[in-house]
What does this fold into?
Amino acid sequence: MVSLFWCSVLLFSLPVTESMKKDESCSSQPTEEVWRNTGQNVVLWCNIKPHCSTEGEHYEWFSFRERSHHRLNLQSHPLKYSLEGASLHIKSLHTNDSGIYHCAAGELGEPAQGKQYVALGTTLVVRGTSKVMVKIILLWLSFVLLAIYSLALLTLIIKKVNNSSFSVLCIFMIHQKSYKQD
It folds into this structure.
């Protein structure tokens, strides 16, 4: 289901990006995947070429996630999101922050007044904390220790049974010899 979503997003964006001429592209953004763990911070880069930028330019970011897409409201979440130039800083990542992030640039005012540019997008993948991995490792370690304990206990029981059998056998043989001598 997840791969179907990502494929549809990519197939939707390919005709748009292919139709753009190389010299018309004013925005650039790394298109590779960025991997982080929960709790970490990330900077998603966005560059507007100097010949395209204007004085009244502002930047916005859009997030496309598995079940939603929206414009990031940077003013209402200042502790989570911040801009440095056109680049987006995201703090204290959660797994639900995973998605494709697109930066957009445009002139302040009405949309029809100036040009707007939207970059191709950077995929952010946020993995769960290492605490989950620690729990899995501890679970396997417990299993291994339990197996070793069980084998040691089984070895002691077998040894005890063999020693008892040997002792019983020795007593029986000694009793046999003494019976024969009498």
Observations:
- Residues 1-23 have pLDDT under 50 and may be disordered.
- The helical segments are 2-19, 130-181.
